[in-house]
Design a protein that fits this description.
It is a single chain. This protein is 37% helix and 27% strand. With 397 residues, it is of the alpha+beta class. The chain folds into three domains: 5-42 and 49-64 and 95-167 and 254-327, 3-Layer(bba) Sandwich (FAD/NAD(P)-binding domain); 170-249, 2-Layer Sandwich (D-Amino Acid Oxidase, Chain A, domain 2), CATH 3.30.9.10; 338-395. Strands 1, 2, 8, 9, 10, 11, 18 and 19 form an eight-stranded mixed β-sheet that branches. Strands 5, 6, 12, 13, 14, 15, 16 and 17 form an eight-stranded mixed β-sheet that branches. Helix 6 (280-300) runs antiparallel to helix 7.
């Protein structure tokens, strides 16, 4: 729609972009969402695992939940596993494509325009407006808005052009959906030969369908192909109908997620858990804060960099330390050998640490820092407890 003027143009129709659009349009602002694909949810690469709290916050139909899980098996490099189970449902596995579409429908229901096959090629910030140049059906058009939100995933081109910096470190997620048997709960594999620096997974979505994937710093597709041929997978896979999908995942935050008439949300801002690569929940939190900050700025007619800078302060206060600790924890894990990983598994198993952590109030699928710090305390104290027990045994106490 050449010449169309909006209050806000959002680049990217993922959950963070669509939810921000929904919140702003619900407040009476005119909003357009640009999506370079032909429809919402096409080609997504994500397990769709979220907490029940996160899912409920989006306010979409529970029928989008494919599976609910209250247990998981964590495999060491040798193939030994710890099985953790809770009485409460810990996570929901979503039909991720349908979930994205449902959030977009909510936005459309309150008047948001979606422009598909529309790639933002340039953004120019002027004194009183933002110009967004788009490539649409082989033609170039310009849209005008009072403000622009980048919600286009890990794609540094536009953020660099707008002098917002870039996230320099990232991982690659690779995943395929297969028909498989004998997979009735979530399985996580810690093995540096399978998924260097990260982990691999089997996530059942139904009685016969399983998501198989992993994270890696590089060559993720090749690593996944090898994992599919491993004893953990090969004998259990009945059929592979899908193709391997890949996605880049930021492992840090954007230096600046705001500018004159600009905000950045979701993966584009680095609002991702570095421990798992999950971005739905943190992107959702970022979307809420962005909608509130931008809505107030639009109302006051002040879209300056000084006014919008509070967005970054607010979301960093909410999840910045969580992301930072998660990043350094992941870095530390990436330097471990499989032998060291095996020893940590043995410690958690024989020392009863896993059970203690499962029963503690620190357990949270969304917030990992408290669990990380609690785990470190147990790991540091464990050798002392073991030595004390041996001493008592030796002296006959």
């Amino acid at each position: 729609m050449p010449g169309q003027f909006y209050d806000v143009i959002i680049v990217g129709a993922g959950p963070a972009g669509s939810y921000t659009a929904y919140r702003l349009a619900s407040s009476g602002y005119s909003v357009a969402v640009l999506e370079q694909k032909e429809a919402v949810g096409v080609g997504v690469c994500c397990t769709g695992i979220v907490s029940a709290e996160c899912f409920d916050s989006f306010g979409v139909n529970p029928e989008l939940i494919l599976n609910r899980a209250n247990s998981a098996k964590f495999f060491s490099p040798s193939g030994k596993y710890l099985r953790l189970q809770d009485n409460r449902v810990q996570v929901c596995v979503l039909d991720r494509a349908s979930f994205d579409q449902a959030v977009a429908r909510k936005a459309q229901a309150v008047g948001v325009d979606y422009l598909f096959l529309s790639r933002a090629t340039d953004i120019v910030i002027e004194r009183d407006k933002a110009l967004v140049e788009i490539s649409h059906h082989s033609s170039r058009e310009k849209l005008t808005a009072r403000a622009v939100i980048l919600a286009n995933g890990f794609n540094p081109r536009l953020s660099q052009k707008l002098n917002l910096g870039e996230v320099k470190r990232f991982a690659i997620g690779a995943q395929i959906e297969v028909e498989a048997g004998d997979v009735d709960e979530v399985e996580i594999y810690f093995n540096q030969r399978i998924a260097p620096g990260f982990f691999a997974w089997l996530v059942p979505t139904s009685a016969s369908r399983v998501l198989v994937g992993l994270l890696s710093m590089s060559h993720a597709k090749l690593c996944l192909q090898k994992f599919l041929l491993s004893p953990y997978c090969q004998s259990r896979i009945v059929r592979k109908e899908d193709k391997i999908k890949q996605k880049a995942i930021p492992l840090g935050t954007l230096p600046r997620s705001y500018g004159n008439r600009i905000l950045v949300v979701g993966d584009a801002a680095g609002q991702v858990k570095p421990t798992t690569g999950g971005g739905i929940y943190f992107g959702h939190l970022g979307a809420k804060i962005a909608a509130e900050v931008l809505g107030e700025a639009l109302s006051d007619g002040d879209l300056s960099i000084a006014r919008l800078s509070c967005y970054q302060r607010q979301w960093k206060a909410k999840m910045g330390e969580e992301i930072s600790l998660g990043y350094w924890t992941r870095r530390a894990y990436s330097k471990l050998s499989d032998r060291q990983v095996e020893r940590i598994f043995n410690m958690f198993d024989s020392g009863g640490i896993a059970r203690t952590l499962l029963d503690s109030p620190n357990l949270s699928f969304d917030w990992h820092s408290r669990l990380i710090l609690a785990s470190l305390r147990h790991v540091l104290v464990y050798p002392l407890r073991k030595a004390w027990h041996l001493f008592h045994k030796e002296v006959g106490l």
